[in-house]
Amino acid sequence: MSKILVTGGLGYIGSHTVVELINAGFEPVIVDDLSNSQPKILDQITKITGKRPVFHELDLSDENAVKNLATAEPDIAGVIHFAAFKAVGESVQQPLKYYRNNIYSLINLLESYYGKPINFVFSSSCTVYGQPDVLPVTEQAPIKPAQSPYGNTKQIAEEILFDTIAAGSSYKVIALRYFNPVGAHETALIGELPIGVPQNLVPFITQTAIGKREKLTVFGDDYNTKDGSCVRDYIHVVDLAKAHVAALHLMKKNEFKGYDVFNIGTGNGNTVLEIIKAFEEVTGEKLNYTIGPRRAGDVEQVWGNVSKAEEKLHWKAELGIDAMMSSAWAWEKYIAQNPVQ
Ligand code: NAD
Ligand code: WQD
To answer: Which of 40, 43, 84, 274 is the most buried (most CB within 10 A)?
Structure first.
């Protein structure tokens, strides 16, 4: 069974990916420092899969800790590198915190396993495109100047990986540019666990519906879109998790060499108001919301051309907005009854 090191494996996307790796017959080994996750998620993964992955609690930005990890776990076939800080606003306030964690952690991993034939999947983001000139955006679209230190860490990380491969390393690398991951596992045993006030739309919707927040503010309805609110490509986290398994399968093939990058979305755009409507329809909950001013730094609209992933990864998103909303709601209700924090 191939061992796959999953950094950030107790986080939102990481925990769902660990489940899909186990379902696909891989042996995930989780590394996490619990800076944005809870140890109980390991129990939840065990409940879902019947298997308890090995877990190393350590900070990947600590060079010595990662060297020790490479000694303790020498025989890994792949790495899926989720571990990073991801709060865009905080990255503007504390850029060094973001550069230190997101860049050092990547370099420490690459250096510690250097020389081994490892298939490496990196969590990138559609944020690298900024506001694309052409929609749906393809992987060939120009990378726009980053809007935040967080976004810049994704651009720099892609360059670090590209240059490492260009220098002839033994790694193979796939960078997955995620669009907007939402939703939760169908068991409602794992999902997104925002610390404090959620910055992202769907957790804010579910927390408002359950009464943790008074109301949702829609950030602008005067954009040049069909109803004036911003458009995004929302993707179910379980579909996203499966894309990582597909990336590992592709890299196993001899004909795959070097480095490649894929958009991971549904290929469809939805407005904020459409998401609210879908949530209300699917759950039967009436959402308290108001229209407010635009949020600084928001792009007007972005959705992905995902044909490259369909052709080469043989992967396609299967779950729609209804499943995204109903699973996010089931998870919100579950944690209201069973706090994991
Ligand atoms: P998350 O915060 O839920 O998960 C990240 C995990 O990494 C957490 O469990 C955290 O404790 C851990 N971690 C952070 N720094 C670490 C360190 N130095 N050492 C060990 N563990 C560390 O975030 P997520 O939403 O699951 O995102 C996973 C990845 O996907 C991130 O790289 C993020 O930038 C990227 N991404 C996320 C989104 C999104 O909207 N969620 C979109 C595009 C890209
Ligand atoms: C979605 C839409 C908001 C909250 C961010 C990061 C990006 C990526 C994913 C990692 C936007 C609107 C939101 C609210 C609202 N992360 N909104 N009221 O901004 O597309 O992307 O997360 O790489 O880098 O920037 O996602 O969920 O914050 O917003 O109206 O209370 O919902 O304006 O149009 P975003 P989001």
So the answer is: 84
C-alpha 157 to ligand 2 mean position (Å): 21
196: left (phi over 0), alpha (psi -120 to 50) or beta: left
Burial class of residue 156 in the structure, from the number of CB atoms within 10 Å of its CB (0-12 exposed, 13-18 middle, 19+ buried): middle
End-to-end Cα, the chain, rounded Å: 33
Q: Residue 302 pLDDT > 80, yes or no?
A: yes
Exactly one of 12, 98, 113, 150 is catalytic; which is it? 150
- Contacts of residue 109, defined as CB under 8 A and 6 or more positions apart, other chains included, come to 7, 60, 66, 79, 81
Cβ 234 under 6 angstroms from ligand 1: no
pLDDT in tens, 193-249: 998 999 999 999 999 999 999 999 999 999 999 999 999 999 999 999 999 999 999
Q: With contact defined as beta carbons under 8 Å apart, do 124 and 157 qualify? A: yes
Ligand 2 centroid – CA 285 distance (Å): 22
Taking residue 286's Cβ as centre, other Cβ atoms within 10 Å add up to 8
Which residue's CA is the closest to the ligand 2 atom numbered 4? Answer: 201
Domains of the chain with CATH codes: 3-182+234-265+311-318 (3.40.50.720)
Q: State yes or no: is 150 an active-site residue.
A: yes
Peptide bond connecting 203 to the previous residue in cis, omega within 30 degrees of 0 = no
Mention every residue, 6+ apart, whose C-beta is less than 8 A from residue 254. Answer: none
